[in-house]
Amino acid sequence: MKLHVKHTTDYRYTEPLRYAVQTMWLTPQSGPAQTVHFWSLGAPEQLFEQHDAFGNSVHSYTFVGQVADNVRWSLVNAAGDVETFGVAEFTDADTMPHPAFFLRSTALAAPHARLAEFGRGFVTAPATAGRVDLGMLLALSQGVAGAVSYRKNSTNVTTTALQAFEAGAGVCQDQAHVMVAICRSLGIPARYVSGYFYAANEPDLASHAWCDVCLDVATRRWVSIDVTHSCLIDERHVRLAMGTDYNACPPIKGVRQGGGEESMTVDITIVPV
Q: Which of 20, 25, 264, 269 lies at a 20 to 30 A Cα distance from 188?
C-alpha cells in the first residue's frame, strides 16, 4: 500500500517568542516494512540532521528572536509518500544496540512485579536461550488491550506503564508502554515504536504507537506488534522512530524562552495514493 502522509504542528503564543530549540523525530526511514519514496520536513529555521543510536533520523533547529520581533506563531510541517509492505518480522543490523539493551528499565516502561505476574498468565513458558514464542506474545498483546482499554484523553505523555495498567485505561502510547514493561519484567527485550496508522474511519489513530519484541536474542530477530489492534503490524502502519520508550523518540520536543502561554494544534491526514 502506498500512503501519503501530512503532519502539521501549529504553535500559538500569547507573548512574543524570544528563543526556542526543537528536536524532531518526524522522518521515517526505509526498511523491511516500508520504502520512503519522498519525504519533506519544514520548520521556522534551518534544520540540522543527525542519526541517533537507534538509527532514527533526528532533525533540530534553533530560533533566536530579536527585540523588535513579535513572533507569536510557528509551524512544523512533515509530508511524504511511503510504500508499506506489512512485514512484521525483521532482523536488526549489527550496528544497532544489542537486544539486551532493551531490557533496561526506563521511566515510562519500567519492569514491575505486578506486570510480571500479569504477563505470566499469557507467556506460560519462560524465554529460553533468548527465544520466545510468537503465539504467546500475541496472546499477551490481546490481554494488555483488554486490561488497558483505549480511552482518548485518559492519560498524558508522562503516564507510566504501571499507572496506565492500574488505571485500566490509556491510549496507544500507554498500551505499548505496558506491553514493553511486561516483556521486560519477564526478561524479554522490548522497545517502543512511534508511527502512523491508516484507517479511513479512525482519524484519531493517525498518530500511533506500537512495540517491537525480540523473538530471538542470538539472531537479533524482532517482531512488531500493535497492541491497540491486537495484531502484527501490516500495510496500514508507517514506522517513524523507535526507542526505549516515548521519551526516547517523541515526535517533537524542545525548550523555549518567552511566548507566554502556548497552545498547540496537531493535524495528521493519511490517504492512499
A: 25
Phi and psi torsions of 264, nearest 5°: -130, 135
Q: Is the pTM of this model over 0.85?
A: yes
pLDDT classification of 250: cutoffs 50, 70, 90: very high
> For 221-232, what is each residue's pLDDT tens digit?
999 999 999 999
The SS3 call for residue 223 is strand
Give the class (CATH, top level) of 2-84+251-272: mainly beta
CA–CA separation, 157 vs 79, rounded Å?
Answer: 24
**What is the DSSP secondary-structure string of 108-119?**
SS---HHHHHHH
Q: Which CATH number fits domain 89-248: 2.60.40.10, 3.40.640.10, 3.40.50.2000, 3.10.620.30?
A: 3.10.620.30
Per-chain mean pLDDT for the chain: 96
CA 152, CA 48: separation in Å to the nearest integer?
A: 34
